[in-house]
Amino acid sequence: MSTLRILLWLALLLALAAAAMLYLQPGFMVLLAEQVWACF
User: Fold this and answer.
1) Rounded to an integer, what distance in angstroms lies between the CA atom of residue 31 and that of residue 8?
2) How confident is the model at residue 6 (pLDDT cuts 50, 70, 90)?
3) How far is the C-alpha of 7 from the C-alpha of 13, rounded, in Å?
4) What is the pLDDT of residue 40?
5) What value, to the nearest 5°, has the Cα angle with vertex 33 and ends 14 and 22?
6) Which one in 11, 12, 16, 30 has a CA-CA gap of 20 to 30 Å to 1?
7) Is the four-CA dihedral 15, 23, 34, 31 of positive or negative sign?
8) How far from 9 is each of 1, 14, 17, 19, CA to CA, in Å?
9) At what angle do helices 26-39 and 3-23 cross, to 10 degrees?
10) Number of domains the chain contains
């Protein structure tokens, strides 16, 4: 594998881990639910 491909995989995994950490925070989930509710 090339170095660029490895770096891209690492960046993708880091982004997914960051998104998972946000979903574990109750305040973020409440904010997200309020924003979705505001759309309707």
Assistant:
1) 30
2) very high
3) 10
4) 84
5) 20
6) 16
7) negative
8) 11, 9, 12, 15
9) 80
10) 1
Residue indicated by tokens 């979903």: 23
Identity of the residue numbered 22: L
- Tracing tokens 């998972």 back to the chain, one arrives at 20
Residue-number span of the structural domain to which 24 is assigned: 3-39
At residue 1, does pLDDT exceed 80? no
Residues 6+ apart with CB under 8 A from 29: 23
Per-residue model confidence (pLDDT) at position 9? 96
Tally of residues, the chain: 40
